[in-house]
Amino acid sequence: VLAEKRSLGSRDGPPHLVVLVPLHSRAAAHDALRLLQSQDSAVVRVDEGRAGGFALLCPRLKQRWRFVTAQAGDLHAVLDLAKVADSLLFILDPADGWDSAGEHCLSCLFTQGLPSYALAVPGGTDLPPKKRIDARKKLAKAIEKRFPEAKLFPLNTEQESSLLLRHLATQKQRHLAFRDRRAHLLAYAAEFVPGQESDLVGTLKVSGFVRGQTLNVNSLVHIVGHGDFQMSQVDAPPDPLTLNPRVVKGRKRSQDMEVQDDSVNGTDEMEEDVKVLMKADPNKQESLQSEVVPDPMEGEQTWPTEEELQEAEASLKASRRVVKVPKGTSKYQAAWIVDDGEEGNQEDDDDDDDDIEDDMMEEAVSQEGESSEEEEEPAEEECETMTISECLRDDQYDEKVEEDEQMLERYKQERMDEMFPDEVDTPRDVPARVRFQKYRGLKSFRTSPWDPKENLPRDYARIFQFQDFSRTRKHLFRQIEKEETEGASVGWYVTLHVCNVPVSVMESFREGKPLVLFSLLPHEQKMSVLNFLVRRHPSNSEPVRAKEELIFHCGFRRFRASPLFSQHTSADKHKLERFLRLDAALVVTVYAPITFPPASVLLFKQRGNDMHDLIATGSLLSVDPDRIVIKRLVLSGHPFKIFTKTAVVRYMFFNREDVMWFKPVELRTKWGRRGHIKEPLGTHGHMKCHFDGQLKSQDTLLSLYKRVFPKWTYDPHVPEPVPWVRSESALPVQEVEME
């Protein structure tokens, strides 16, 4: 622990990276930067040539810092810098602390993972001394809920800035699990070399200090917000933030000796003052393949041999029998006709069981046939007739009113789903056996078996699955802790040659946005099914339907996807939720690249004006394609005539064939009675039902189930959000919650 604490910001470690985050529109971040730069003569200042960034070198204290200012209102920049920062320096307003945009920023930072931090309050000197003390007490009371036991540092003089620097250097460092197990760096300089084929794609040379773990050139790197890439080589240029040039020269000589040993392997080509540490080995380099290319002929059977054909003919001849059939009967129909002798041995009491078995056989045959028609009927699967009143809309209304109408409709649907969960009306124009042909009945949702490999969609042929995910994760983490990997050690200033990078990455860096790189663990570039455990954020209460496009911030990744919501239970089947609940934790399921937990997740919803609203927060639960998400439909009927244990039910079905089709499915009532359909009455859907007790005048329900899968809507390109609209109101203390 002492060695880790002493290495941060020292000669052998990376500079202490401090990110300034202004939390109020009136927060004087420029004054704080000016005071931090105006230290005594022992501190050497090195400007980076970019706005809001500088370095402080102090040979007397043997410390070096790098300060970077996050752009006000740029949420992506704040979150990206917080992923790699050693410390966050929050700049508060002396009167209000933080505004609505600062509150939104703090909510996202607390969920993503907060590194070590300090609170600085520049300004406030224009107030009278008595009012200054009262404002300080009010601010200290306001920040108690967000930052318990936090100390406020005034930042108005050089002495106060020296105390703040000492606190940043000596405070205990917080660890973020998702970055401690991966090598990462914040770009100090970058250069783009266009490729030979196109100027839009080329090699990006990124220079920075290695942090976290040793960086191997054969591993993949993820540029936050841009995607996964391969590296061709790693160079060791001179350190631009040296504490003592003499010490650095001696250290470079020792590194030169290491490089000279490597030069035997063919890395003699070096530029002046730039040493090539290592080059990628094509045999050991990780592949960029993220999906499996499915072979459509993989499941086909081979043509049988002559011996197998002869054996089949012999078995057919041996099993043939002579039966009497009606005229015009085909061979297939004749195979199902039972002899009179076989029928005579059966009792009359088993007739009902035979009818049930025949119905179940027909249901199984229809389910086998529908698998080939599944892709042809996507519209029928998505359409449901909900028992809601249709909202009248006028085409002459302007766009804003139409959005209000749509939001009102969503609120109504969410309310109806809470009052009558999963209930739908049986359609009148389509037979129920056709509309619900992909559903099945279950004796018990908790104990009835469901094969996780049954009727998988085509997208499952494109993903990767672990035989035992937890065992693979433990093995990888054990290797990181015990085994020493070859590569650039923590604290080295290196230049990474990243291949096939689009020029947009360099353009983003020139605009002043941070360029953050993370090395990937094995398999983390491959696609699979990720499950996140999230809870609704209290700041947002708008209804969010399943399969709506959301923006995910998972660990060091950002992507867009349309998720499924399901209940978080310990069973092997999990019921689908149509809306993101306000009062319960739900599991969100999407197709996404594999990430090894622990990793935090933030869910955003993009508005029409390109603003991102935080709707849910949580963490990565598992990477498991076998997690079964079941969609339930409830058909309701009305008791028409009630006897002791039997009743005539209507309005559940509207023709006799549907009653016979759903006869094997068990019925239940809202008060716990269970029963089954005995027989249909008439031709308009009335049916006689038998229950296990006295039936009262409540609805009769029939539950149907179907497994659902997420849509393949993964998109790694997330548009930049517009700055958050700041509110100048005082800090809402009652809404702040400790996360």
Automatic annotation (TrEMBL):
GO terms for cellular component: nucleolus; preribosome, small subunit precursor. GO terms for biological process: endonucleolytic cleavage of tricistronic rRNA transcript (SSU-rRNA, 5.8S rRNA, LSU-rRNA); maturation of SSU-rRNA from tricistronic rRNA transcript (SSU-rRNA, 5.8S rRNA, LSU-rRNA). One of its GO terms (molecular function) is GTP binding. This is Pre-rRNA-processing protein TSR1 homolog. Coiled coil: none annotated. It comes from the Eukaryota. InterPro entries: AARP2CN (IPR012948), Bms1/Tsr1 (IPR039761), BMS1_TSR1_C (IPR007034), G_Bms1/Tsr1_dom (IPR030387). It comes from Pygoscelis adeliae. Residues 235-268, 281-320, 334-399 are annotated as: Disordered. Keywords: Nucleus, Ribosome biogenesis.
